[in-house]
Write a structure and sequence with these properties.
The protein is of the alpha/beta class. It is built from 18 helices and twelve strands. The protein has a six-stranded mixed beta sheet, with helices on both faces. A four-stranded mixed beta sheet has the order 8-9-7-10. Strands 4-5 form a two-stranded antiparallel ribbon. Helix 3 links the parallel strand 1 and strand 2. It is globular.
């Protein structure tokens, strides 16, 4: 997580224009039929629906060989790798991508790596990545991918199957981070750094939260105790809702991919969130907040709790609140257990890479326990290696590492589907309708389930 701009799974309103997204999503290609045509239509619809939102951008294009025919990365190939590789991704605000490429080049000696920015925002980087992958460009050997891109990219046959490589490195990876790379019972990327939500609380006003119910009760006790979170109608609201739903034992899709969001847990969480706005536990202004407005509201000193990402820790320490706040992992649902929603970034090898062995060597380096310490110490990102969180040097730079590890280990991926943009939109749109008072819980749950079912049927 970049300390200035979150290298986060969430997007603020910096997406390309709707028209541009539609042109990209619906362009080109001969007429298709059967499953390939359905896939193209689903990805195109997902891009159009998400335009101007978290996952807007391009998708679709000519049919590819698909995940079932993808070639596999050879874990042993990195040992004899030579030549050069190009790692491509979004704006390197913290310097982690360029720094990793330089450190790898220096240590490896036989392979030269460079980092190329292909977008100033996450949406732009995704758009540029899709254009290159659809066009079978050999420019990029590795793409730095948001965890929510895995299913879409893999389903189109754009990536190498990394199952054997991930299995070879599994002992160095936190299990929950590996789940973000999975699609169709295979692994399509390697975790690089991760992310999970935290609760910041004013120690002189409120208690460290153990359950969501306790947090909301404490927040309602006094005007200055309130809770702020990301309640705007965008991807952040999906994440905030899923954090509670997962901890309450609910889910969106089951292990078979069936839609299971029409459940008692979904109703309970929606009622709970809605009641919290009515009784003053949460300020109604959260309905306009994404990450930065929530942080700035909390920095005013007028609230007791804030849900946000790890990057906020350093920013808060540069304000008058320094020393007055605590950091806690996300609380449990009463009678349940804590469960966050994973963010972060992975390393995916392009199916069109001309130096796949060099890409394997780079991934081997980037996921080593030693380099993962630098991920935390030098770049303030959340490592995917558990040992890094207890390292003395890391703890000096990241004193809340224990709390962050608890959130990461207890977190789950968002629903795994090539039509995730449509699924997310169905969630945040209907959750927002309940919170804003324009829909009943019952109507919203039914509509949510119907829209997610329709999205899945389109693929």
């Amino acid at each position: 997580m970049d300390l200035i701009r979150p290298a986060s799974p969430l997007q603020e309103d910096n997406a390309p224009s709707k028209a541009a997204a539609q042109r990209t999503a619906l362009s080109g290609g001969a007429a298709l039929s059967g499953r390939a045509a359905r896939r193209r239509r689903a990805i195109a619809v997902a891009a159009v629906m998400a335009a101007g939102l978290v996952m807007s951008g391009c998708g679709g294009g000519a049919a590819t060989q698909g995940a079932e025919k993808a070639a596999a990365a050879d874990p042993a190939s990195g040992d004899a790798a030579t030549g050069s590789i190009n790692v491509c991704g979004g704006k390197d605000a913290s310097g982690i991508y360029k720094g990793t490429a330089e450190a790898f080049t220096k240590e490896n000696g036989k392979v030269t790596a460079k980092y190329t920015e292909i977008g100033a925002t996450t949406d732009e980087a995704r758009t540029q990545a899709v254009q290159r992958l659809e066009g079978k460009s050999t420019e990029c050997d590795i793409f730095v991918t948001d965890v929510i891109w895995t299913s879409e990219f893999a389903s189109q046959g754009w990536l190498l199957d990394q199952t054997k490589l991930v299995e070879a490195n599994r002992d160095r990876l936190i299990p929950s981070t590996v789940e973000t790379t999975e699609y169709d019972d295979k692994y399509w990327a390697s975790p690089f750094f991760t992310n999970a939500g935290l609760v910041y609380y004013q120690k002189d006003k409120v208690a460290k939260p153990e359950t969501w119910q306790q947090l909301y009760a404490e927040a309602a006790k006094a005007p200055g105790n309130g809770y702020v979170y990301q309640g705007k109608q965008y991807e952040g609201l999906t994440v905030n809702f899923l954090e509670m739903l997962y901890s309450a034992g609910g889910e969106v899709l089951n292990d078979k991919g069936e839609v299971t969001i029409d459940s008692p847990q979904t109703r309970e969480v929606l009622d709970f969130m809605s009641n919290g706005l009515r009784d003053g536990s949460a300020d109604r202004a959260v309905l306009t907040y994404n990450e930065d407005p929530a942080r700035l509201a909390y920095e005013s000193g007028n609230f007791g709790y804030q849900r946000n990402w790890p990057h906020v820790y350093r920013l808060l320490n540069a304000t008058p609140l320094a020393g007055s706040f605590g950091v806690a992992p996300l609380p449990a649902w009463e009678g349940g257990k804590a469960s966050g929603v994973l963010g972060g970034w992975n390393l995916a090898i392009s199916a069109h890479s001309t130096n796949q062995a060099g890409a394997v060597a780079f991934i081997d380096f980037a996921t080593t326990p030693e380099w993962q310490k630098h991920v935390a110490m030098d770049y303030s990102q959340a490592p995917v290696n558990e040992a890094a969180y207890s390292d003395a040097a890391v703890l000096q730079k990241m004193p809340f590492a224990k709390e962050l590890l608890a959130s990461v280990k207890g977190a789950k991926p968002r629903p795994i589907s090539p039509v995730y943009p449509q699924i997310s939109q169905a969630i945040y749109k209907n959750v927002y309708a309940v919170l804003s008072g324009t829909a009943s819980t019952e109507d919203a749950v039914k509509k949510m389930a119907e829209e997610i079912t329709a999205a899945k049927a389109s693929f």
